Amino acid sequence: MTATTDISIGATIEQTGVTLSETYERGIIAEQVGCDALYMIQMPNQRDTLTVLGGMAAQTKNVELVSSILPFFTRPPMIMAQNALTLDEVSGGRLILGVGLGNPMVGQFMLGTEQGPPLQVTREYLTITTSLIRDGEASYTGRWYSANGTYAGPRRASLPVWLGTFGPKMVQLAGELADGLLIWMVPPSYIRDVIVPNLRIGMERRERAPAEFPITMMLSISVTDSAFELERFRRAIAGYSRVPAYRRLYEAAGYGDDLAAGRPTDRMVAELAAFGTEEHLHERLAEYVDAGVTRFAVSPYIGREFDPERFAINLRAALAFANKD
Predict the structure, then answer these.
(1) Fewer CB atoms inside 10 Å of the end CB: C or N, the chain?
(2) Cα(33)–Cα(27) distance, rounded to whole angstroms?
């Protein structure tokens, strides 16, 4: 098995149908069992992630706090950077800012504005956001985003900005402008054959290569073989497959025939998640590490009701892979 002592294991903190106190409880448990980071996803109809992370900062001590993934349409890039720098100060320098294009159809429906071509929009957004964070000022005029201003508060110039994406050209852009990559719903083969080569292409465009460039895999896990959990994840795949970008991803990853069946197949469920024994979980994590992943944001499937014990058991199973428990 691949050496795993340098692999980071973090926990994805669920908000859907969860009270705020349960959200914080999950974060506290994850830190107590030894997770390195807490990853909080922003869905369109949920609480604001950065606000909740501000509360999470007060509930935890050392764990990293990752916004994953804040869609561009939720904030102009200057405000995104300003919010991130403020929360980073509040949390004692523990924030990692994860951003992404999001679903353009959702953004247009919510705000009534067109988002623009993905590559150009992402380049402009990242340029402004990273400029304010790294340099304390931004002066940029683009087609979709423009900004002029400075940040006067305390500023951690090294605050990481990660891009959540998976398309070849977008991954290249991440390598060129971002500080890390967040990926979701992809098999190890796609990471090895598509993401890593394109990331290298993008990083060759940088003036100076960073000391490290994290590739974080957000992975649904459970050390059980619950039929409920398997079917719940199958429904999640079905939902994502209706989004054009994910449909293209699944086809590029070799699931065209599976999708043609009209329902996500057992093969898709098995290859896009890790459900089963702890040994099986470790085998799946090793496959991702061999493909190039350096960090995990594991999302324990624990059923409709929050069960702190099961939540901790799943996290400990993942942590055992990295020899941290």
Answers:
(1) N
(2) 10
